[in-house]
Amino acid sequence: MKCKNCEKIEKLKPSVDLKRRFCSISCSNKFRHKQDNEKLKNRNDEILNLFRSGKSFKTIANRFNLEIATITLIIKKLKTKEDEEIKCLYGKGWTDILKISIKARDKYLCQKCRDETNNLVVHYKDFNTKNHNPNNLITLCKKCHRQLHGNN
Description:
It contains five helices and two strands; from the N terminus they run ααααββα. It has about 150 residues and is mainly α.
């Protein structure tokens, strides 16, 4: 028999139930814990995607049969983790103040299609996410930004 958790191969005695899939109770618990964590991660990813798509907290809470307060905490926790990952990728100089100042300088217009929209992002002209020089930054709408990165 091969354990489903640690993949240790163990010979079974004839009296042992052949449906057993783990070499020990500890391995069984670890396996179930991994499965539970994966289910939670998938659920949390789905919650965050629904939030990003504009669904209300109430709609999300109803879909997962959770309290609105619980949904709020999950989203806050995921957003905090995401913000930390962004800081690692873009460095300390990548701040909301910098992004707002670039958008204001560009008169809140996409500098490629000149569209005036709420879906504006700040893009690095040289694609170097550590180069926060204002001359290297430009305001784009999300559509133009996706096209620039080849993600039509």
